[in-house]
Amino acid sequence: MDIANAMAFKAKLKAEQQAIIEAFNTKPRAEVLLRDLCRCVDNNLVAIWKSFQFPKDVSLVAVGGYGRGELFPYSDVDVLILLAAPPDKALREKLESLIQVLWDIGLDIGHSIRTIDECMTEAAADITVKTALLEARLIAGSRNNFRDLKTRYDEAMHPQQFFQAKLLELQQRHVKYEDTPYSLEPNCKESPGGLRDLQVILWVAKAAQLGNSWAELATHGLITAAEAHQLKRNERAFKDIRIRLHIQAKRREDRLVFDLQNAIAATFGFETTEARRASEYLMQRYYWAAKAVTQLNTILLQNIEAVLFPLPHQAKAINERFNEVNGLIEIAHDEVFQQTPSAMLEVFLLLSQHANLKGMTAKTLRALWHSRNLIDAEFRHDIFNRATFLQILQSPRGITHVLRSMNQTSVLGRYLPNFRRIVGQMQHDLFHAYTVDQHILMVVRNLRRFTMTEHAHEYPFCSQLMANFGQPWVLYIAALFHDIAKGRHGDHSTLGMADARKFCYDHGISRKNTELIIFLVQQHLTMSQVAQKQDLSDPDVIQNFAKIVKDERHLTALYLLTVCDIRGTSPKVWNAWKGKLLEDLYKMTLRVLGGEAPSTDRELKNRQEEALKALRLVGIENDAHTQFWEQLDIVYFLRHDASDIAWQTRVLHDKINSETPVVKCRVAPIGEGLQVAVYVRDQADLFARICNYFDGKNFGILDAKIHTAKNGYALDTFLVTEPAFASNYRDIINLIEHELSDVLSKQAPLTTPNQGRLSRLSRNFPLVPTVELRPDDKGQYFLLSISANDKNGLLYSVASLLAKYKINLHTAKVMTLGERVEDVFLIDGPALHNPKNQIQFESELLDALRI
């Protein structure tokens, strides 16, 4: 086919596809669009195929979703060119020309060229290939060749093996997506509860010859007619969303990314109100649909497995309401929940009490799902039900699994109405990765892991504290309520306190434990704010925090909840540095609560003694540190750990009067990132120059301690991070030591800060930047706090302004929370005492943060 014909085909194909999309925009019918796009491509492929005049024993076969007869606007067109025998040179060249033409006319072709034997070999080795061939469909060419493939494929199909492989594949995919459909940017195709889960059911059913549609599955008794209707409705809804995603993005996009959520919501007719964005209405509908799909899929998979792997129905009575059947709990008769509504909580209590019970049978799940509306006000006020719910939270095992199951079956939301309000609720704070309900359950999971020996290696200190903490269920209740009031008007900590107080009163929790739970809900943000935003070397900071927590039990509870809360926001938010800040605050506060008055002299002596011990271990002479330490004041020793003091002394004690900049780097003792020490004769704009260098390398600065020695040298230390550090830190250490030293030697003029680009997430949820400048309690320094969207070069912009106004920096805590930064700087300088200059500085800083 020549270029002119190919271009004509391309124009014709594009016009036909656009007409189909416009018809959908006018009258949205997902199944019609998918079918019409598929037929459109079929017709063009047949015409092109005929023009090449291939041998009669060659077939063009549609596979995968295209083979199923569905084609989304920007999906790949997956085809198999089926040969009777390996191709000779001439046929291979002709096939290569065909593929090139298909690309030239604008089709995203996913192709393979195989003989029948090769297809069977690949299918036996790769479950993905076997699945694609399951829905193979002849487009053009030899029918006999295609029929031979289908015959051999069907003969080789082993439904039991196929089921097991697809189930393992499903589990692997769910782990990739954190086992939750409730991420804030879910993949409507691949995430749990999405289209792929529905396709897995139909694949295994087709392989086992149990049906090719939801209606046929209902005919075989695997689901009810009502459930089949619900599955079909949700499948159509997900297909509709995926189509709109492709159309809006003008590319293959299966994630409901923030950039597109409002646009997609508008196509469905959702509108933004004072209370919620249009996207929030869309996403909550999505989450409820995904939840229903997950529930029904569990039932279906169990029923199909029972057909493929029949086991004798060996029922062992647990009590008069429940039996154990092959390791699962099953209702004794169909009317259990109708006759005894309290059994809807009892079933979860039994799951937590019996280690041999791995879940519920499909019969139990179905009955529970259809009876959930019986959990009403009368049910919630029943003293027996309240005692049962409390027993679940106090169980020694299985709490995380049980709470997730209760949420999945809507029992948790029915029992705690305020929890139901946050199911599927979005969080637009740039660092949470999950909906509110999933974040809460993630926090409970994190707390539970501290009680389990198999996870003790992850956070040994937290596990040790939890082992000595009586009644850990108190923490689980606090976790359940700490964010339960999000989305309401007002402070969610204060509103959550009222919910927690009522729960404790209703459930007969002791006054002492009630007070602790309410305290944790009220103060659940306090410890992270103190650790990350205040100067922990200041004894008054520790003293004031100790007054808030009052005793060791409150401190330990708040520490454990805070660690789990931060870790439960997003995999990107937690890091070892934040862990160290919290642990340092905990230990310093514990000493104060134990009766040790904050003493600068004692702390100074302790740190110096620890540092000297570390120096002796590496063979440093006893008095080698003396001259170096004489140049350092008390503030230096209070702001650095003993290990940091020892390391800096070891590498700098013989370079006190170095005429060239000294840069030393090591892997940070906390286990993440690199620690960089810069020792150089103090120079103008030093902090800005260092920030400029790190920004140029795309290194993130987590912490900075700025110190000027008595001899006029600057001793600055930085904690920097970057994903590549873990794999080649030795090379990076050498690079930083050489390049940064060279940069500081040249003292070139500062460059203008680049206007760094905001991330996709930040563009969709822009923050109004804030700047707060206030003197510290002693009037010695100023605390500068900034909050803004993160972007490249932001810290350098701040540093440049500090340099411009000749403001001295003493410490910097650079806190990155997902796509948001909350940085705190301890500064001083004459400009800050001049009201006019101060306002001008703050105004320029706000401008820099807005850019």
TrEMBL record:
InterPro entries: ACT-like_dom_sf, ACT_dom, HD/PDEase_dom, HD_domain, NT_sf, PII_UdlTrfase/GS_AdlTrfase, Polymerase_NTP_transf_dom, UTase/UR. Keywords: Hydrolase, Magnesium, Multifunctional enzyme, Nucleotidyltransferase, Repeat, Transferase. Residues 436-558 form the HD domain. It catalyses: [protein-PII]-uridylyl-L-tyrosine + H2O = [protein-PII]-L-tyrosine + UMP + H(+); [protein-PII]-L-tyrosine + UTP = [protein-PII]-uridylyl-L-tyrosine + diphosphate. Transmembrane segments: none annotated. Its EC number is 2.7.7.59, 3.1.4.-. Residues 1-317 are annotated as: Uridylyltransferase. Its cofactor is Mg(2+). It holds the Pfam family GlnD_UR_UTase. GO terms for molecular function: [protein-PII] uridylyltransferase activity. PROSITE patterns: ACT, HD. Residues 675-754, 783-851 form the ACT domain. Uridylyltransferase (UTase) activity is inhibited by glutamine, while glutamine activates uridylyl-removing (UR) activity. Belongs to the GlnD family. Modifies, by uridylylation and deuridylylation, the PII regulatory proteins (GlnB and homologs), in response to the nitrogen status of the cell that GlnD senses through the glutamine level. Under low glutamine levels, catalyzes the conversion of the PII proteins and UTP to PII-UMP and PPi, while under higher glutamine levels, GlnD hydrolyzes PII-UMP to PII and UMP (deuridylylation). Thus, controls uridylylation state and activity of the PII proteins, and plays an important role in the regulation of nitrogen metabolism. Has four distinct domains: an N-terminal nucleotidyltransferase (NT) domain responsible for UTase activity, a central HD domain that encodes UR activity, and two C-terminal ACT domains that seem to have a role in glutamine sensing. PANTHER family: BIFUNCTIONAL URIDYLYLTRANSFERASE/URIDYLYL-REMOVING ENZYME, BIFUNCTIONAL URIDYLYLTRANSFERASE_URIDYLYL-REMOVING ENZYME. This is Bifunctional uridylyltransferase/uridylyl-removing enzyme. It comes from Undibacterium cyanobacteriorum.
